[in-house]
Specification:
Number of strands of chain A: 5
Number of helices of chain B: 6
Distance between the termini of chain A: 45 Å
Largest interface: A-B, 116 and 126 residues
Largest sheet of chain A: 3 strands, mixed
Shape of chain A: elongated
Strand content of chain B: 5-15%
Distance between the termini of chain B: 63 Å
CATH class of the largest domain in chain A: Alpha Beta
Structural class of chain B: alpha+beta
Strand content of chain A: 15-25%
Largest sheet of chain B: 3 strands, mixed
Number of helices of chain A: 5
Radius of gyration of chain A: 29 Å
Helix content of chain B: 25-40%
CATH architecture of the domain at 174-262 in chain B: 2-Layer Sandwich
Order of helices and strands of chain B: HHHHEEHEEHE
Strand order of the largest sheet of chain B: 3-4-5
CATH topology of the domain at 174-262 in chain B: GMP Synthetase, Chain A, domain 3
Radius of gyration of chain B: 30 Å
CATH topology of the largest domain in chain A: Alpha-Beta Plaits
Oligomer: heterodimer
Order of helices and strands of chain A: HHHEEHEEHE
Structural class of chain A: alpha+beta
Helix content of chain A: 40-55%
Shape of chain B: elongated
CATH class of the domain at 174-262 in chain B: Alpha Beta
Amino acid sequence: MDDKTARGNRLGLLIVGLALMVLSALAIARGTGAFPRTVAPSDSPLVDSLVRQPFATYDPWMWWMIAAAGIVLALFGLRWLFVQGRRGKLSGMRLDGGPGGATEVDTGSVTDAAAAEAGTHPAIINATAAMVGTSEHPAVRMRMVVAEDAPMSAVREQLGGVVIPHMRQALETARMPTVARVSLEDAPRRPRTVV
Amino acid sequence: MARQVPDPAEPVPGAGPSDETTPPPRARPAVPPEYDTDTPRAYGDAEPAAPPAYGTTEPTAPAYGATEPAPPMYGTVAKDSSADRVAIRAFRPRRVLPSVITAILMTVIGLLVALEVISALLGRPLRLVPYDRILAWASSTPWSDPRIMAVAGLVGLLGLLLVLLAIIPGRPTLIPVKTGDKDLTIGMQRRGFARSLAHAAEQVQGIEHARVRLRGRAVHVAADSGMRDTRGLADAVREAVNMRITALSPVWKYPVHVHLREK
């Protein structure tokens, strides 16, 4: 899942939450008689003549509006659901190929090579990589299994000093933001250190 | 598959005078890497064949001879840099569950309203919801009814919960690692981190078994010792764990508490 989805989730929850709070506050205010009696008395029923009147005046259209509002709400809900699965995976990248036009590169071969190269470091037991983002702003997501007694500086140097520069070179990009998720695994035991 | 194989004769910008080419079409063997590893490194003249001796718990001093001023400087990582903030943000929980529940409810309610209204307008009401009874009830129940107040209160609390879920950042799912580089974000799993610290404690002579719990941002080490004389042992454990923490270089400081159980 990408950052856009995370931001969207927060925004969606905020909007729905605020809407519910406002509705609840209005209902409580009405029920406790906080509004002037002449406008909104607390002892009138939920559905009174003021509510019925517009439905009678604009007979079918009021209902069509409500149906449309329902459809819009459902569409927002569906869209919100579908973006949860969004990975933003980038399978092909367009490189500027000079006068000959653009070159389409399969990112799978590049990420495979990057994962393999990361794995050549003895501290990195296993690595996988995938390209995300757009051709203009590509980014890399990596998952790695790292020996738990290796310093993170080893991983840092292997990625920042070797793997990422090579990817940048291969894909001709100035930046290659990388997010690596590391699980630490017990390496084969070595002799105890005497303290 | 590369849809168009780049011309091998065309030098890659920035690759120097070597005959390096862009990666050839996909070939799946894991090693060796497809890019030419014989070209000069972008990072000093480090030898990839001789990685740092990572077994040492010495956390500093990059083994690579990279002396170029090019960013970032590994090994000497800036404190609380913007890179740290990027890393912390990257592993924030994404509120998938509350979002999915809210989105499903929105969809169901919206569809239900639309279906009922449109079917009634077309003269074939579905009546999935007993709205005649609801209308009768709503026409006779005043706003001040305590049940209305209770429902309104619940809805308000639900709204407050959603707002809190949206604005409280939440604990990152992974422990961010210091990298000093905004474009390189590393996170490690909490479980593996705790286990690694426990193993570090167990490597201290005199410790038979150790268990580590992370409580918030504090490390609690429960260590069993088979020795009679445990003087200085707790300090040794603390030092070993601290060294491992330094090596794993999390963004946050983790104070270490050692509880030594003697036999």
